[in-house]
Amino acid sequence: MSKKRGFDIDFPGTADGTYTGGQSSGARRGPMASAINENAEALRERAAAERAIREENDRLAHEHVRLKRAGLITDLVPLDAIRTDKLTRDRSLAPDPEIGELKDSIREIGLSNPIRVEPDGDGFELVQGFRRLTAFRELYAETGDEAFARIPAGLVASGEALEGLYRRMVDENLVRRGVSFAEMAQLALNFARDPGTAAEDVEEAVAMLYASAGRQKRSYIRHFATLLDAIGDRLRYPEAIPRKLGLDLVRQIGAEEGFAERLRAALEAAPEGDAEAELARLQAALGPEPEPRPERKPERRTGQGDADSAAKTVLRCTVPAGTVRCAARDGKVELQMERDFSSVDRHRLEAAVAAFMAALDS
């Protein structure tokens, strides 16, 4: 039997050969140990990087949710993905005479104020921006330009109560002051009839929808709601009814038995015409409008010129936007109506004045 050959194992230790449990100073680490150590270090770095990525993703996700709830997330949304049937719009379906100006502005500088939409299923439901959406759809239909196939839209968080969505729409239009009393009243009527809202009647609907409006304005809206409830289905241009005429009609409906029925019959029998013709029929039902009282001229003081005693012409003119009262005298023309002229663009005012003077001199 052959004798087994032995071999020595060198353990790291002190100079006297005592094992210390570790590698002696200056001894080389084996390739396997180095690989294991490097792999462990890489795993630690990778774990730290993954942890940092998860923390950043969590932060971004919470920030996205916060911005979305605030309606501050904006995206380009396809026009055909936007529906407008969840909310009853507070805009008349009649052609908008100013939509052309909005389209020109979009062509030249783009859309400055995105619409607001709520994600709904595989599409979106419009909350704010009916005119802007209409302008984009018309531009796309007219030009076929893909630049108008999508519209900038702020994404409102899903799940907001129906009343809140209505308030968003209403308050935006109240600020713009472009909605007539009849349009606001019709929205209140529809809101009160909608089983998905908490309003039991028009009174509650007006209080909920127009909480941001003043008390007097809410009163006017309720009066117009009474008018529309009585004869609204016979009106072709309810948005053209000025405040005073609407209030006079409501007073007459309450004071004269059968007046509403006679007015409905007269409107139904009348031939189709424009807004001015319909306003004339409504005024005729009330009887001739009383002539405005002549303004009392101030007593002439000694030393005053002849300008103060110049003749004065006063008249009223009914236009689609309402009734205009005009007072003309030497060197001065005044136009008064229920409209905030300070909100009209300066260039449009200049063009209107120029057209007015040109018509006088023609």
UniProtKB/TrEMBL annotation:
Basic and acidic residues composition-biased segments: 290-303
Name this polypeptide is given: Chromosome partitioning protein, ParB family
Superkingdom, natural source: Bacteria
A GO CC term assigned to this protein in UniProt: chromosome
Recorded coiled-coil stretches: 32-59
Key words, A-Z: Coiled coil, Plasmid
Any one Gene Ontology BP term: chromosome segregation
Chain intervals for the UniProt region annotation (Disordered): 1-32, 285-312
InterPro entries: Chromosome_partition/occlusion, ParB/Sulfiredoxin_sf, ParB_N
